[in-house]
Amino acid sequence: MLKESWLLFQQRLYMDWGGGGDATNVEAVRGGIFAAKERPFFDPLIVHIAELSQLDGLVAEVSNQAKALMEQFWPGPPLTLVMKKTSTGS
What we know:
alpha+beta
């Protein structure tokens, strides 16, 4: 189901549902994903990116250690990094 700036979908592997949207679009995040999941704003979302430049405006800082991990493992197997969002981030 596509609704304006966010997407609701069923995950076949987990027999569950998920939601996705543009992490840079405040309405998609707050009015779409958080509202649909009835999720409190202090409970962060996962943001998937394809390249380092997509972090601009999303995270406060990318450490040298994180950059080294990205350079070593991207593209390739999934790599999870936890970073502090910007104060203006959704």
